[in-house]
Recover the amino acids of this structure.
């Protein structure tokens, strides 16, 4: 039973750390499927987390915080969109630029406005998300196996956690079952054909970028309003890049993204759990190896050793309408 | 696909447009300073004074510039072959192993001028090795170089934490760093160079690796514009299909380019390890690999542009530290913003002002043509 208990705790923290990854990777799914590379996920998430923390601290309203996160994240996405769609600039360069601008300005503005060393003030009860306890969670807990699964694993998360997992089928439905999704994917594979059909490639790509902004906004808000009570400088700590890795690892498919994020989240949770504890048979595993594993797995996958990851065909190429 | 932009005279292409882009980046940075409630002009004064005001300040500026010349060249070499090496950070970090091994091996028995060449080779070797895999994977397995190099940055970071906490750390020490090198593992300062101009270097760690950086810049120029390999690299960067048609081996050029790029990034490690700290510490690269992207974009991937761009960023790093002394609400993170803005305006939005400038030039040449015509008639 002890092993089972450890497993439940491990899976619970897996879910907790996977949520921002799922949001961010789905965000990347929308842009990359529309043919725009986005390594600015990290920056957008960080900007959103800061906006959420700052606005929630000032207004004492968690929903205003969430709204601010989404708006800022959309604004940053539009900068990326303007550079890579309208100005036909290099999409990778633009993403790198956004990451830097956000990393710097969140600290400078946070320090100027709140004077707490780049943090936003700690948020009280009403200014952050509370966990939701399912009905009868406490009374059912004693039931073996099912009890802990219901009470600890399924119940007791933030509302954004449930939103994140709901976004997976929703994104799938949007991308694969709506006209908008079909066109969005077409723009990423063969923009010329979409243009011939009389649909504006530019406008399609801008809409994809806005979708990305909304989802990154959720990711950021989760970090500063749910996972912790307030913004801490550099709090994304490379999660945007892990999300990018998950997106590729999932071969640009929504349900695979969820699994990849859970896998990477599990590795993260396991690394924390294993710190200092030797593993049976293998012995002591260096924490650093566990931390590097998501990246190593992604490299191996990209190299085509575990299946083949084929990116959208028109990815990274700005569309020039023939004159 | 034809280029959608008209051709401009050389001085406008390589001088005017980068300057305008830079000016806009600084204007936006000034707005951020205003937003924080400080005077941007005062900040600019502290920036320039803090970077050049005294011999010591200048020494620090050039020390940072040395680092950025290496990483800038690394990014630029890859750019010429149409590759985006975003992994300079990791390659420089791993390159540090080569420097540290050379120093730990010989520092107590040999003078610096024996250790230095070995350290150069070591850093270049380890940097190149770290760039080899991404290059090879792109060439042979078709995985995207940008993604692989990003992943390799993170892997390098984990690897180095492991090495510094478990392997390279002296026994009984708690802090994750190598032992401090003896005299042979420390580079002499270039105080005489500044003394020529009557400046006192003070405590600034401006050292011999600056000269190496200049040599590297010259070698990159030779390589890109005066050798067969450089010609092949540029051909591939312009048009991979043309390169293939001319019988050039795409995979060979990709792998070699990435290794040269990685070697240059790795050599960056000489400056902080042998030139300043005298030991290898955790996170000694401090984002220099990413600054290299900004420097290469600013310098239009030409060594003659990269050196001034590196000095500019050296100025930002050193002057930025002074600003944060004088104006506490502007911390060193301001540099990160400016760096991002430069990457945005000089890189991703480089064509924003081009149509307007092209129109200006077109108008002028039309007017000149009209004048010539009336004179002729």
């Amino acid at each position: 039973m002890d092993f089972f208990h450890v497993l439940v705790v491990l899976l619970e923290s897996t879910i907790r750390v996977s949520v921002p990854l799922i949001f961010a990777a789905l965000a990347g799914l929308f842009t990359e499927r529309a043919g725009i590379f986005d390594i600015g996920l990290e920056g957008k998430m960080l900007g959103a987390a800061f906006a959420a923390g700052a606005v929630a601290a000032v207004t004492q309203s968690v929903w205003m915080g969430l709204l601010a996160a989404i708006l800022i994240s959309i604004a940053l996405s539009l900068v990326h969109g303007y550079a890579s769609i309208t100005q036909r600039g290099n999409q990778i360069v633009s993403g790198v630029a956004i990451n830097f601008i956000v990393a710097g300005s969140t600290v400078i503005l946070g320090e100027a406005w709140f004077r707490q060393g780049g943090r936003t003030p700690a948020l009280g009860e009403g200014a952050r998300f509370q966990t939701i306890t399912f009905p009868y969670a406490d009374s059912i807990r004693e039931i073996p196996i099912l009890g802990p699964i219901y009470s600890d694993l399924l119940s007791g998360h933030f509302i954004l956690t449930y939103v994140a997992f709901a976004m997976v089928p929703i994104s799938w439905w949007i991308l694969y079952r709506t006209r908008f999704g079909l066109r969005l994917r077409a723009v990423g594979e063969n923009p010329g054909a979409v243009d011939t059909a009389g649909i504006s490639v530019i406008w399609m790509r801008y809409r994809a970028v806005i979708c990305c902004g909304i989802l990154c906004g959720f990711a950021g808000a989760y970090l500063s309003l749910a996972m912790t009570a307030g913004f801490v400088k550099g709090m994304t700590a490379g999660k945007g890049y892990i999300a990018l890795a998950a997106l590729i690892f999932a071969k640009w498919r929504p349900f695979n993204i969820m699994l990849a994020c859970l896998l990477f989240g599990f590795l993260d949770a396991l690394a924390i759990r294993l710190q200092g504890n030797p593993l049976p048979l293998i012995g002591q595993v260096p924490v650093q190896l566990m931390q590097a594993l998501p990246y190593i797995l992604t490299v191996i996958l990209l190299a085509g050793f575990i299946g083949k990851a084929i990116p959208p065909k028109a990815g990274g190429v700005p569309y020039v309408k023939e004159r | 696909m034809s280029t959608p932009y008209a051709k401009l005279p050389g001085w406008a292409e390589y001088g005017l447009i980068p300057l305008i882009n830079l000016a806009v980046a600084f204007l936006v940075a000034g707005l951020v300073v205003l937003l924080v409630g400080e005077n941007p002009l005062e900040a600019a004064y502290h920036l320039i004074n803090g970077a050049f005001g005294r011999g010591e300040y200048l020494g620090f500026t050039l020390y940072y510039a040395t680092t950025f010349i290496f990483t800038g060249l690394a990014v630029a070499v890859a750019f010429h072959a149409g590759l985006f090496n975003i992994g300079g950070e990791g390659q420089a970090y791993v390159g540090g192993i080569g420097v540290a091994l050379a120093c730990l091996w010989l520092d107590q028995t040999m003078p610096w001028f024996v250790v230095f060449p070995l350290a150069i080779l070591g850093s270049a070797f380890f940097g190149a090795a770290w760039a080899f895999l991404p290059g090879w994977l792109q060439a042979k397995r078709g995985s995207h170089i940008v993604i692989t190099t990003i992943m390799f940055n993170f892997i390098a970071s984990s690897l180095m934490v492991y090495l510094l906490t478990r392997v390279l750390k002296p026994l009984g020490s708690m802090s994750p760093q190598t032992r401090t090198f003896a005299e042979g593992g420390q580079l002499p300062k270039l105080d005489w160079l500044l003394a020529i101009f009557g400046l006192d270097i003070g405590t600034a760690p401006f050292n011999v690796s600056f000269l190496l950086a200049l040599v590297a810049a010259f070698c990159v120029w030779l390589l890109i514009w005066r050798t067969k390999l450089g010609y092949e690299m540029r051909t591939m960067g312009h048009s991979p299909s043309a390169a293939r048609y001319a019988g050039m081996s795409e995979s060979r050029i990709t792998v070699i380019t990435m290794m040269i790029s990685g070697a240059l990034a790795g050599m960056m490690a000489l400056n902080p390890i042998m030139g300043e700290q005298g030991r290898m510490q955790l996170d000694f690269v401090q984002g220099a690999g990413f600054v290299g992207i900004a420097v290469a974009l600013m310098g239009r991937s030409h060594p003659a542009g990269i050196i001034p761009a590196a000095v500019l960023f050296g100025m930002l790093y050193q002057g930025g530290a002074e600003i944060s002394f004088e104006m506490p609400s502007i911390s060193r993170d301001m540099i990160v913003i400016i760096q991002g803005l430069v990457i945005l305006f000089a890189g991703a939005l480089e064509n924003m002002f081009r149509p307007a400038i092209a129109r200006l030039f077109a108008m002028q040449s039309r007017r000149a043509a009209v004048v010539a015509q009336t004179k002729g008639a």
Summary: Residues 8-38+329-377 of chain B form one domain. The CA atoms of residues 180 and 279 of chain B lie 5 Å apart.
